[in-house]
Amino acid sequence: MAGMTPNNPPRRILSWADTPKTVIYTIMISITLIELVLQISDRGWIAGGELRGLAYKYGAFWSKLTDDWRPIYAAQPWTMFFTYAFLHGGLFHLIGNVVTLGSLGAIALQRMNQWKFLQLYLSGMLGGAVMFAALSDSAIPMIGASGAIFGLVGAWQYWEFANLRRRGLALTPFYRMMVNLVILNLLFWLMLQGALAWETHLGGFIAGWVWAWIFARE
After folding, report:
1. What are the residue boundaries of the Peptidase S54 rhomboid domain, all occurrences included (predicted)?
2. Are 164 and 173 in contact (CB under 8 A)?
3. Is residue 175 in some structural domain?
């Protein structure tokens, strides 16, 4: 049959899940474009400089909405569990998350296709929001992709932990990394004068760890 000889093997059509890093680039571009639009608005070129405030008002995570605050629109108490991760507090906040997403995302994609990566990312995003809602009563909005990114950290550390145990090696490197993560969060919390949503980091980490334990291939 034509096209089936050993010298002319059939071509497999690549799916979206097979394309390297498409999901990471899509997330990076999405959150970057949103922040750039807000930066332009901050300079008064769009919506009279009020667009960032509106974006936070409608899309940030407000823990009080899980208590006694009235939402602006009916679905807000539910949509904010995901929309918060697309908003950032400025270029430095965005750049830090984008760089971290690129490096940790590359590690994760060595073990899974992009559909599973997206599941892991969303798990960290949701876990971070749930933990923030459970532990924080702050009236300040929570924003940023760090919950989802700490989901990647949690999965990565589960893989490292499982690998050490499987090989019968000491868990010292794993414990050292845990201590480093705690110290890093503490330092940023001090630098930001308590404005760091460590609850979101913790929730994302736990969600990523659990996801990797249940679903990820070893």
Report:
1. 78-217
2. yes
3. yes
Q: What is residue 217's three-state secondary structure? A: coil
Backbone angles phi, psi at 61, to 5 degrees: -90, 120
* Model pLDDT, residue 18: 54
Question: Nearest to residue 82, comparing CAs of 206, 185, 200, 188?
Answer: 200
Q: Look at phi and psi of residue 120 and say left if phi exceeds 0, alpha if psi is from -120 to 50, else beta.
A: alpha
Backbone φ and ψ of 75, nearest 5°: -85, -5
Q: Which 3 state secondary structure label does DSSP give 104? A: helix
Residue 189 belongs to a domain with what CATH number? 1.20.1540.10
**Count of domains for the chain:** 1
Q: What distance in Å separates the CA atoms of residue 194 and residue 18, rounded to the nearest whole number?
A: 41
Assigned domain for 202 exists: yes
The DSSP 8-state label assigned to residue 13 in this structure reads P
Residue 89 domain boundaries: 16-214
Q: Would the pLDDT of 19 be above 60?
A: no
CB 87 within 8 A of CB 135: no
Contacts of 174 (CB under 8 A, 6+ apart): 157, 160, 161, 164
What is the amino acid identity at position 111?
Answer: R
- Give the Cα separation of 5 and 7 in Å (integer): 5
